[in-house]
Write a structure and sequence with these properties.
Structural class: alpha+beta
Shape: globular
CATH superfamily of the largest domain: Bira Bifunctional Protein, Domain 2
CATH class of the largest domain: Alpha Beta
Oligomer: single chain
Strand order of the largest sheet: 3-9-10-16-13-12-11
Bound molecules: glycyl-adenosine-5'-phosphate
Length: 458
């Protein structure tokens, strides 16, 4: 709503106090940059994932879902290039022993005017020396040379010490879509162009994780690979840029808070790549990526697995390896955007301030709160709660004044609050309060469920 009021501290505090997100392993002093979703947070994140799946699978004529294993044959990561080059340039501060990404140090020091992606390791070391770039922790400038640091988490598979094989926690979900390309195509009888979508966990041993859930070592991705014929790839690249943009708008992200950013440097196999950036409390940063990956991924899997990845066109009998347009977005990073977008401290007519989360109703954890005006109305209120719970996530609150209860719902973004009062007992009607306008209407209990369903439809 009003991005200039939002700070990361406010979001983190609200999340902790309202059961949205807690620090991971908190009672043991935490575990750097891991976060646990609480009762409200898990609902919001599930709703984000449901909306994404609805747009990119359910409402798509030619996209199919998969849920591939997190642990994959280690050769997958040789084929994808991750074992060789999924790494960040890291330096250690010799004074305070903290580890940093050289590219981040340079970008922070130059206030974003230098794009470190375009510099070699030697050029980065030189820049840091010439400009006396300091350690953000201790303020000294005394770093080790840059070393490339692979971001994949390793683990091992095997029952005996000697027979252990090194395997990895997947650093992206995409490869589970590529390796199943022909399985999906054959079983669904899909014809190119078509898409494969997946939502799942990914893991990266990030050198400098941080900024709450923006960059973590364990996170969820929502990825969509669209397989098409060479020659149609740029057209679909543009289509997916547009779909990605429209999806963000559809869940309540204001267009003035997002922008496209073309990549300055393309991977050697990529034909085009851009991000959609969001105006986070930390500044404009990547929210999702859209890439034209050519036929690189499938070709590499064909080469490394020895299995043909050729698609045979059923009309022309032409055989080819399709091009891929990839659209990838982090569910947790989108959650942070959604939280930032929804946050408002609103000054009311009486001078008081209310903290309100203006979530899109499809995203809100609870769709409706049931509030008996007094405790002796609780039996009727519980009946209404039970009826609504058949269709929606509902919460119930009878503690404190009705004003305080409305505020509690505003803080977690419940779009509708239903009050059971003495008239309810007379004529089976209730009041429904709208979170954003705070206006109330009176409606029959028999119409309540359909009324809410219509209001929250996505
Ligand atoms: N398969 C392509 C791929 O993984 P990426 O740009 O590395 O591309 C895609 O990641 C998206 O995943 C990012 O735009 C971001 O939303 C999310 N993401 C990546 N690393 C993340 C991290 N460490 N923590 C949270 N989200 C992350």
């Amino acid at each position: 709503m009003s991005n200039n009021q939002v700070t990361m501290d406010k979001i983190v505090n609200l999340c902790k106090s309202r059961g949205i997100i807690f620090p991971g392993s908190e009672i043991y002093g935490g575990m750097g940059n891991t976060w646990d979703y609480g009762p409200i947070g898990v609902e919001i994140k599930n709703n984000i994932k449901k909306c994404w799946w609805k747009k990119f699978v359910q409402e798509s004529e030619n996209s199919y879902g998969v849920d591939a294993a997190i642990l994959m044959n280690a050769r997958v990561w040789d084929a994808s290039g991750h074992t060789a080059s999924f790494s960040d340039p890291k330096m250690d501060c010799k004074e305070c022993k903290t580890r940093h990404r050289a590219d981040n140090l340079i970008e922070a020091h130059s206030k974003g005017t230098v794009n470190a992606d375009l510099l070699s390791n030697e050029e980065m070391e030189q820049y840091i020396k010439d400009n006396n770039v300091c350690c953000p922790r201790c303020g000294k400038s005394n770093f080790t040379p840059i070393r490339q640091f692979n971001l994949m988490f390793e683990t091992s598979r095997g029952v005996t010490e000697e027979g252990q094989n090194k395997i990895y926690l997947r650093p992206e979900t995409a490869q589970g879509e590529f390796v199943n390309f022909l399985n999906v195509q054959r079983t669904t009888r899909a014809k190119v162009p078509f898409g494969i979508a997946q939502i799942g966990k990914a893991f990266r041993n990030e050198v400098t994780p941080g900024n709450f859930i923006f960059r973590t070592i364990e996170f969820e991705q929502m990825e969509h690979q669209f397989f098409c014929k060479e020659g149609q790839d740029q057209e679909y690249y543009e289509i997916y840029k547009n779909l990605a943009w429209e999806f963000l708008k559809s869940i309540g992200i204001d267009e003035s808070h997002i922008r496209f950013k073309d990549h300055d440097k393309l991977a050697h196999y990529a034909k085009a790549a851009c991000d959609i950036q969001y105006q986070f409390p930390i500044g404009w940063s990547e929210l999702n990526g859209i890439h034209n990956r050519t036929n690189y991924d499938l070709s590499r899997h064909q080469e490394y697995s020895g299995k043909s990845m050729l698609y045979v066109d059923p009309f022309t009998n032409e055989k080819y390896i399709p091009y891929v347009i990839e659209y990838s977005i982090g569910a947790d990073r989108l959650m942070l955007a959604v939280l930032s977008e929804a946050y408002e401290e609103e000054t009311l007519e009486n001078g008081e301030t209310r903290q309100v989360m203006h979530f899109h109703p499809a995203i809100a954890a609870y769709k409706v709160a049931v509030l008996p005006l007094q405790k002796n109305l609780s039996e009727k209120a519980r009946e209404v709660q039970k009826m609504l719970a058949k269709r929606f996530m509902v919460t119930y609150d009878e503690a404190g004044s009705i004003g305080k209860r409305y505020r509690r719902q505003d803080e977690i973004g419940t779009p509708y609050s239903v009050t059971i009062d003495f008239d309810t007992m007379e004529n089976d009607t209730v009041t429904v309060r709208d979170r954003d306008t705070m206006e109330q209407i009176r409606i029959k209990i028999s119409e309540l469920s359909d009324y809410i369903a219509e209001k929250i439809a996505y």
